[in-house]
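Handoff note, outgoing to incoming analyst
You'll be picking up this chain. Sequence as last confirmed:
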Amino acid sequence: MKKSFDAYQLKAGDVIASIGAASGVWEIGLAGMQSGLTFYIQDIDEYSCNEEEVAYTKAYWERQIGRKINGTFYAVVGTPQKTNLPKDTFDKVLIINAFHEFQYQEVILLEIAQILKSTGKLIIEEEIALEQGQVHEGCGLPLFSETQLINLLDANQFALKTIVEKERYLKVFVFEKK
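Most recent structure output, in case you need it:
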């Protein structure tokens, strides 16, 4: 998680959306490393993405680290084609190990361009296919190659800023709006 935290460059006062975040396990864990973050935890699954589950996740992390987490967390339920997140609000939008699962990737990218502030960053942490036709071990869906992912984002209003390699097959891509 430390490598992700460093790659995301989260700082106090950041307003962050995490799309495809379920109950916010990663996000609340990250907030335990930096106080003063506001997270909009978004998912299409209303059973995992709701205030009760987010509160449970926060309590779990507080037990793990032995102190209160100083952050604000909102659960937002979307649809496969709409995030239901407010426009021009976010310093950063995170997609952690979920982009390959999105049914309407281009539609969501267009919406992300609208919800990010003009100086905002889109950060995608994603397992990358090392060979053609490789699928995600957990969900069985096809993985992107690094080139496919970058080209898709480039065609949808985002320019690559940096890549942080966590493992040979796991990378953090930081994009800016064009």
